[in-house]
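Obj: model holo form, ligand = magnesium ion.
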Amino acid sequence: MKNSWDKLIQGIREKDIRAMARLITRIENREDGWKTAMTEIYPLTGKARVFGITGSPGAGKSTLTSEIAKELADRGYTIGIIAVDPSSPFSGGALLGDRLRMQQIFTVKEIYIRSMATRGMLGGLCQAARDVIRIMDAFGKDVILIETVGVGQDEIEIVKTADRVMVVCIPGMGDGIQAIKAGVMEIADLYVINKADKPGADEVEADIQAMLSLSSDLEGEVPPVLQTSALKKQGIPELVSALLKNPSDTQKQKVKEEIRIKEEILSLMEREVFRQVRSAWENDGSLQDSVSQVMQKTSDPYTIVKQMLLNHKHR
Ligand SMILES: Nc1nc2c(ncn2[C@@H]2O[C@H](COP(=O)(O)OP(=O)(O)OP(=O)(O)O)[C@@H](O)[C@H]2O)c(=O)[nH]1
Ligand SMILES: [Mg+2]
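Output (holo structure tokens):
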């Protein structure tokens, strides 16, 4: 087993795309030895720039992502794309649409696309996304684009793992601005009004600018607001230049990185502790005993957890 991990890691060093694909699958599936493998991959990372792309369903994120990737490829960058598919079964159509739309760039060899299903990954999705980003980074991708639908908390968490986050809006959003205010404001480094070929883009831009100027949370750099039409391929070079521009506030970047590292350590720890405790309780039968006690009304879940934690600590 160890041997085959080594082979795959050697494969990504040699820029073997199929080794990368296989490695990603095995890491996503959390196969035995995945953490050791990630430990070996980690020192190969840190060079890629990671951009998050989020926004309401159908805002044109995938179309825009494809255009951004093509522009980056034209400028000589190699690109990895991670499309996080929403877990809702109703989005099956959108998912297929994504594949079709993205297919045209499949043929560009500098661009590697990978979709990640949110289904079945229960809470571990954010870590899995971090791992996939790292594998692409280790492979040598210069830029990694990660697309998520910006609705749920999970998606926001994922996109926060990026260095810079772009929030995609569309004309005629109306109440949408309110929604942006609620969850996304603090994570947006850049606003894009896509579908600017439709009427109402200037109004949305004015709304966003007004919102930004009123915000007391924003110190220093105010996020730029740009208009694009992914469909008509307008505004893309300007957007790519804005994305690539180094943020002037390095102190703020450092704080963001510190927060990201801390969150990752804590979330890995949380899962690991839970996994260990759970398997110990299951293996020695104490979980089953506790269930019986509660059913017989000789104990309650609160007491059980308290006692179990105490026992576990003293082991
Ligand atoms: N008019 C216009 N339509 C666009 C533009 N960009 C994308 N679209 C269309 O909008 C629809 C949705 O585009 P997607 O790129 O799939 O949007 P998305 O945000 O990735 O959608 P989900 O991933 O399903 O949330 C498609 O029919 C696109 O052709 C644009 O700039 N102008
Ligand atoms: Mg999409």
